[in-house]
Structure formats: structure tokens, C-alpha cells
User: Fold this.
Amino acid sequence: MTWFASPSEAVTRLRQTGYLSDDAIATSVFLAGVLQKPLLAEGPAGVGKTQLAKAIAEATGSDLVRLQCYEGLDEARALYEWNYKKQLLRIQADDDAWDDIFAEEFLLERPLLKAIRSDRPTVLLIDETDKADVEVEGLLLEILSDFQVTIPELGTITAARRPFVVLTSNATRELSEALKRRCLYLHLDYPTPERERDIVLAQVPGIAETVAEQLARTAATLRALELKKSPSIAETVDWAHTLLALGREVLDERTVAETLGVVLKHHSDQQRAAKELGLR
Amino acid sequence: MIDRHIGFVHALRETGLPVSLAEGLDAAHALRHIDLADRRTLREAYAATLVKRPQHREGFDVLFDLWFPSTTQGPPKHRDDDPEDLRSELAELLRGDPAAPEFSAFAQAMVERFGRVQAGPGRQSWFSYPVIRALSPQTLIAGLLGERGGLPEKLARRRVTTNIAAFEAEVAADVRRRIAEEQGRERITRSAVRPPIDRRDFLRVTKAELAEMRREIHPLARRLATRLSMKHKKGDRGRLDFRRTVRASLQSGGVPLITHLKPRRPHKPELVVLTDASDSVAGFAQFTLLLTFALREQFTKVRAFAFVDTVDEITKYFAPGADVLDAITRMTTEADISRFGRTDYGHVLKTFEERHASVLTPKTSLLILGDARSNYQPPNTETLKRLTEKVRHAYWLNPEPRNQWDTGDSVASGYAAVIPMHECRNVHQLAAFIEDVV
Assistant:
């Protein structure tokens, strides 16, 4: 199937789901669809990597299958597992059952296998790939290049319909060259003030355009400071919600000083911002 | 198109971007699906398939502009206006959106007007400096700020300075395009692309680059910390973990098929850092100190000492949560590290042994950061030898390229005979050192 007809169509359809893209996002999403290659989205926390996968699923009307990676994730959690309890019961119930305990009914599907066997269009989101151990990358290689899984007792299962794969990473470690080579790469960074303003306007209905503009500019200024943790888009959006709840119409020094905790979560960062922006 | 594609991929490889054969093919496949006339889509299609590291994007963009120059605007309008009018036009543009087409069109027209310089008899070349000088955008800032004082001014200032940087980048890009047009693309490829930030020399960085590197510290420290802790986890396992083994045996009907072992307790070294804080290595020392402190979770104890010609402890300035820039300023003004202001390694080592020898124990790792340039003072190698014998590990990181060791007043190999000395010129080498050694 074709996922998107052109980069500009990707922009429109993502926009309908409330996700504002730019040239880089639209082009790589479009290419990942036509080339049937996984898309690796890398960037700091809170710039909308996971959200992108959800938006793609929504825009194309597909199912979203999500595999959350963490340290210690293994094949049994990512791919498939045999339901040994059921197998044991079957053997106890019927002594001749030794041959048929490795059948479909004893197989527990995990996200990767589920995405491959699904006959509906599916977006497979492999979230925070960098948190998983290096061995998991090896496991992903076979799946991502050939879209097939080998289960020794059942044989090789090939994807009926190739899923749209999105991998995300916060770059806490460098992913292996082999994995990167098989993916299209999208670096998501903090947006330009213009785009961030539009995001705030789209995400927070009811906020005044001037306030959104000021928020976006302030966030950009904060990111230019040398902070431990720069404010993410999600935090700017939270900030907008906060201002709306407080009923503030302008973002002046006093308001910023009072609500700085929404965007900066380190004490030293707050002090630095207060000093540099002249809040006190 | 094929020739241009291949030439472009070659140029990328030449400037140090690792583009594999498969990735080149991917890019070619991608070209079949997109509208080649749309330059922005073309750029992103190449970026998605070829550039797999954010540090490489800057160099990629420079090369892309050379290989696929924009031709849509036609020949730029010839502008003979009075420079003052041009300045006010620029001021107007700096208030707006730098992504607007007028913005780059104006930059190109200005290069046409001011950028041509006679480079020799009968030869001319293009430079961005005369363009920037003629328009001097920096002097426009004051007029553009509008409201004075407080937050609005900060925001306006930030916006104008970013736009000025964007304008200067547009001018530089257009200058490169013109040079490439006249002298051929291949000539300019090498000189146009700067190495990515993690490969730039500590000793030659500009202030802006240093700030950029400092911003990399926390991500870098986090990356190193994860990798180090993974290494610990993967190392030899220790004793049998009885509880987990029995839990796991339930899966196999009470037969312990899979044994689980307790991970060995990670070895957390104590670290003593002795760093040269003289001006010649200032950027390097700052960066390394910050990284050491950012890596604190890997070490049970970090103690830092700084020196120029005498030595003092600076640990207290880098307390958790302290602001890094303040810490550095306080360190240079408050700590007693300089008597005459000329580096003297021999004297420093002697003072360190006299005053602070107690911090060195068989559990410590000693890390010395410096260029080993001692202004022709006696090096006191014997003292260093005694110090290294007291500790578990000792390393010296030298920010100078290896081929400059022992030139002039450097006594690098004298010290290298008693302590392993590593060349550490950029972030990349530093990360590699920490990963290999710690």
C-alpha cells in the first residue's frame, strides 16, 4: 500500500491530526513509506518523536503497535514466547500431546511478531531504542531488513503487509552502524520560534496569538542559555496551559518568574534563567 | 543526474562523512520518488538517507548548496542603492522571518554588490567579509530592539542576533557558490567544510564553539555513563543469585534450568584531577573539568586541583547544582593557583606532593591535564614518579597534537616516560579515552 502520495500530502494529513511537520519530517515520512524502510527519529526528549508515530498511525488509519524498550528487554518480551503453563497443562492432561504443544494456540504474540503478522495496515513504534541492550539491536536487524521472523518450531513468518516502522532514540548511546544503515534518519530538534508558536496554537485552543508568540520566543531564549535541561516542546505547551489556567494575557517578567517551574526543573537552571532574563 | 549524484556522494565521503554503498543506493532510490525540481525536498531526501549523525548535518548542508545550487531566483537584481538605504532594508528583513525568500535574495544581491574583491592582477574572487563590513548588521541591533530593558529587550535581542547569524550564513553560502561557479566545485569542497564539533581541536576553538561544546557536556556525560554502566553489567558475573534462580526454575516445573548470577559490584574509582588552568590550555581545561564533574555518578569521589605555577583544590566550586560558568569564574578569581602567572610544572608537582599528597591512595586514579609546557623550568620528573607510584592508575591527557610534543619548552616525553600520556585534542578522543580506561 502507499502510505503517503507526496511530501506535501504528508504535511496536510499529519496536520489534520494536529501534528505540525516541516520539510525534513514530511520528506522522511514520505520516503519511509515509499521505500518501505524504517524511520529512525533521534533528538532530545520532548520534541515529539513518539507523537510523530502516533500521528502517522492516525493519519493513515492504521493500528499502532508499540514496543517500549528498556534495559533487559529480551526476545521473550519483544518477539514471542511459548505459553509454558498451557503447554504443561496439556501434557498433564494428555500423555500423547508431546508433538502438538508447539502450535499456534500456545504462542504468545509480543509486539514485533504482532506487527509482522497483522493483516491490517500497522505502524510499529519501537520507542527509546537506545535504552535497550545492544543484543536487541541484533534482533531488530533481521526484522527491519527482511520483515520476517524465524521461530524454530514453526518456521519463518514473513510479513503479510509491511508495517510502517518508527524507531525513536534520545541518543543516550550511539546506535550501531548496522542499524542506522538500514533506517532513514530524521533528526528532530527544537523547532524554530515560528513553528513552535504554531504548535502551541494548535495544541492549546483558546490561547491568544500574542501570548503564543511570546512563549515561543522566551523558550528559544531559554534554550540558548547553557542549561542542564532545555525546555522541550511539551513543556512549552504545558506552560501555555498554565498561563491559560491562570488567566494571564501577557507574558511579563512577573509571570515568567512565577511560572518558571513549569519549564525548568533544575534549581540551578532556574537561577541562571532568572539572572540572564533579569527577572529579579 | 547520476553523475551529479555520484559526485556529491564522493564529495561527502571526502569530507569525512561515512556514506556506505547501500546508503548511496537508498538515496538514488529516493530520488525516483520525489520531485527533483523541489530543492528543499531533494535536500531532505538526501539528508534522510545519507546523514545519520546530527554533527554531520552542517557539513552536509554546505556541500549540498555547492552541488545543487538554487537556480530558481534567476540572476540577482543589480542593486546600486545608497548603502544607508540598503542598511535600512536589511534592518527591516532582520525583524522578519529568516526563512522568507526575500531574505536570501537580499543576501545574494549584497554579495553581488560588495563581495567582489581583486585577488591579484586580472583575477577576482569573492569574500563575505566586505559584505558584512559594508552593511555592518551588528550596529543595527540597537535600533531594532525597540522596547528597552527587561524581558522584551532580551527576547528581541535574541531574535535579531539569530537573524543576523542567519544572514551571515546566507552570505557565506552565496560566496561559496560563486567561488565554486568560477573555480570549480572540487576546489572548494575541502576548505568549505569544517570538521564536526566533536573533532575540533580544543586549543583552536573559538569562544562560540567552546560554548557549543559545553552544551554537549551533559548529553556526552550521560552517554558515557550509560555505556560505562552497561560495560560493568556485561562483565564477568559474580556469585549465584539464589532467589532469582529459584524464581526462574518455576517456569520449568521447579527444575533450575537457567541459573542467574548476581552482577559483580561495579568498581567505582576515586578520581583526583590535576589540571593546568593557564591561558594556553584554558578551553581544554574548562571542558575536561566540567566533564569530570558531570561524570560524578561514575566515581565515588572526585577531587580536583588546578594550577598555573602553584596548586590549589577547586572541588568546592563545582558543588552539585552549581552553575558551571560561575564555578569557572570563581575558580579563576578565588583559588590560589597563580603566583607569577607562568606555568611551572616542576614547582606545581613539588607543592602538590607537599600539601596534598594525602589525597592519593591505592584506590585513586590520578588524571593530569596539561600541555607539559613548563617555560624551561626544571620538570621535576622524580616527584611525578613518586606520585604515580602511590595511586592505582595515573594518566596524562595532552591537548597538543603528538607531533608537537617536545618542541619548544614542552617536556612531554620526559613525563611520558613515567606516566602514560595520551593525546586528547578533541571531544571524540576524550570520549574514547574515558571509555577505554575507566
Summary: The mean pLDDT of chain B is 81.
